[in-house]
Design brief:
Layout (H helix, E strand, L loop, with lengths): L4 H5 L8 E4 L10 E4 L13 E5 L8 H13 L4 E5 L9 H9 L4 E4 L5 H35 L4 H12 L2 E5 L5 E4 L8 E3 L1 H8 L12 E3 L2 E3 L4 E8 L2 E9 L10 H38 L6 H8 L10 E8 L4 H14 L1 H10 L6 E6 L2 E7 L6 H15 L6 E5 L9 H17 L6 E4 L6 H6 L3 H22 L3 H10 L4 H8 L3 H13 L7 H18 L1
Parallel strand pairs: 2-3, 3-4, 4-5, 16-17
Antiparallel strand pairs: 1-5, 6-7, 6-12, 8-9, 9-10, 11-12, 13-15, 13-16, 14-15
Helix pairs in contact: 2-3, 4-7, 5-7, 10-11, 14-18, 15-16, 16-17
Length: 546
Amino acid sequence: MSVTIESVLNMEAFSDVAIIAGQKGINRQIQNVYVMEVPDIFSYVDQHGLLFTTLYPIANNNEAMMSFIPELAKQQLAGVAIKLGRYISEVPKYMIEQAEARDFPILVLPNDANLSLLTNHILTALLGMKTSMLEFRETISQQLHALLLQGADLVTFVHYVSQITGGNIVILDNSLNCTASSFDIQDDEFTVDREQFQQWFNSSNITENNPSIIKVNQTTYGKAELFIQSIAAGTKRLGYLVVLIDEPGKMTKHLNVVVEQAIILLAFLLQTEQTIIQKERNYLDNFIRDIMNDRYQSQAEIIEKAKVFRWNFNFPNIILLIKSQKKDSSKRLSTYYKILDSGKIPRIIAGVFDVPIQNCKVIHYNGELMCLISVAFETRLQQRLKTAGERLIARLADYGQLGIGISEVIYQVHQLKTAYDHALLVHRVNDQQGTSESYVQFYDDLGLYKLFYLINDHALLNEFIDEKIGEVIHYDQQRDINLLETLTYLIKNNGNLQKTADEMFIHYNSLRYRVNKLKELGLELDEGHKFTEIAVACQLFQYLNN
């Protein structure tokens, strides 16, 4: 319930009062009343106030009269009530036109109107409304506190707030990821336009009248369908409470009061939850480090202890090692913790493999994110892992480019350390090659790179390259011709000239000319062992020079 221009006009004391302009602003809320006794009244009024005046202070000042209505509208007052008779006999036409143009209500009071009595009627209504509001606020506060004392978690709390408000609730973290909601929602069913969200929340200009800010399934929500409040503890922002307004008629009239009380307790809940999560992470990190360092002798003991962390740790297992491509170490670390806080990795993995979310655990380990996945025996394992990696890169795109190294299948706990080293080798090989884009790569697909990386003597490697294909490299450098590219395609196609010509989009005879030139430079392309050595040298050259 609120006091508006319309509700004031319906009061018995205002039965002789008429609205002569700004009819469209009749639903403007009134939060205070003022009586004009000085010319510079604008310094003494606030928005949503109703100003009572005889215009005595400015009646003989044409300039002040002309700017009176525009200035009140600029101050966002609810309206003005003018008493006629003693100082002005009628409201000037230009004032009426100014008010109409701004939907700013002008009320006309009769000659015998008592301003004190009229203002008292409004103040009494405001007092009653505020008393009722205070009682409502206290009731909501008691209900929410009682819920917390009963041990409600974040999800239960959000469901309860949803029932009170009449709208669906979503809790977002600072990265605008959904951390809790009053309805079932999947990661791929919920998106936030981060730019529009921040522009609107920070009160910046938005070019569109009602741009799409949040999308749930196929339903879009603009600023007219959203009520958003920041959740903070002191100066630290913890996230946002978002109310989705699907049916305005079903929403509580005191939405702001409910949300105000809810975010106070949500801040407590989120801080408590973050503290618990961090402690659990620390214990889990230590547990996994102990496993990797062979401090457990029994595989059965490890599997049993993992249950303490709500982890279905079992075999076969796979390690996904996720590496941020950001150069700055502090930014990488921040990215890892944002990804961990989002909880997206276990949800995505569970969705791809159709397993419980408890089959996957993710920790920050030695400067990267290590994801251990308990998988079933199946023939499509590599395909699913590839899909999982690609989906992770797509869903985590907001965090920048990511590299994902995938280990071989792990069947025994003593193989975990080796599998981790192999997944790590994928990143080291890509780092050696200067890869800066996102990638998903299996250890099993590294081929000869597994061996190349283990040889630290690069001079020896370059000597082998020079011995096998050095003449080709020098020839290309001197004549700006890429015979090495031709050789690479030829190796890829197992020496098949026609297939190589087609793939390079050149004439068959042109390819034969290039092949003959390669032979003139000393390459033995027709002898199996020699051809294999040349192929190894080409791969080695690519490895060292990318």
